[in-house]
Amino acid sequence: MNITAEQLSALFPELALIQNRDLREKTVQVWLQACQDCDWDSLEEIPFSAGFTPTPDNLVYHTRLATRYSYAVAQQSNQLQKTQADLDIIVAGALLHDVCKVAEYSKAGGKTAWGNGVTHGIYGICLCHHFGLPMEIIHIIASHTEKLGMPTKSLEAIIIRHCDEIAASGSYLLSRHKTKSGGKWVDL
Within 39-183, where are the H helices? Predict the structure, then answer.
């Protein structure tokens, strides 16, 4: 998929929250490389989870929701509990926690060689290492899911893991009950 940094920034306006320019640029590079490595035509057509239709349950929506939740929780934790969660690490980590899905899912349906060959997250870890992202980001990706067996070892990783679970749980719940409850999706 051909996508520019400007198009990516329009899809993920949360990138502007990353104050550290180098970290923001490396986060963009990881996403651009993932887009080049996949068979999708656009990020909006990638489902956030296997078995979901990409509208409205797409990867972009899920990633943005998990990022916004993580950012808000980190801000409140810093303010109310006097923690020192690194907001740049929070935003970059949340934006990258599921970048692996670009290569794990196939446009043709099902999973790719990456999706079938390794555990969820490995592709994202490889890209982050390749582009020189800090170990804090790699740890967030490695610990955001139980599938990798890595416990969370930082406040940032704890926040993102739980906010990712909340974002995903909301999508699962709404998809199951939207016809009964009249659930509505909100444009971010």
Answer: 59-80, 87-96, 101-104, 113-117, 122-130, 135-143, 155-181
Check: CB of residue 119 under 8 Å from CB of residue 101.
no
Q: Give 105's Cβ-side CA count (13 Å radius).
A: 23
The stretches in the chain having pLDDT less than 70 are: 54-55, 171-188
Residue 7, amino acid: Q
Domain limits for position 77: 5-174
Report pLDDT for 48: 85
The whole model's pTM is what?
0.91
Please check whether residue 11 lies inside any domain of the structure. yes
Tokens standing for 28? 């963009």
Look at residue 115 and tell me if it is in a domain: yes
* Residue 187 domain-assigned (yes or no): no
Tens of pLDDT along 132-149?
999 999 999 999 988 888
What pLDDT was estimated at residue 62? 94
Residue 183 resides in a domain:
no
Distance CA(183)–CA(175), nearest Å, equals: 8
Which residue in the block uniquely carries the two structure tokens 């971010």? 188
pLDDT at 186: 55
Q: Report how many domains make up the chain.
A: 1
Q: What is the CATH number of the domain that holds 45?
A: 1.10.3210
pLDDT for position 179? 44
Q: Is 75 left (phi over 0), alpha (psi -120 to 50) or beta?
A: alpha
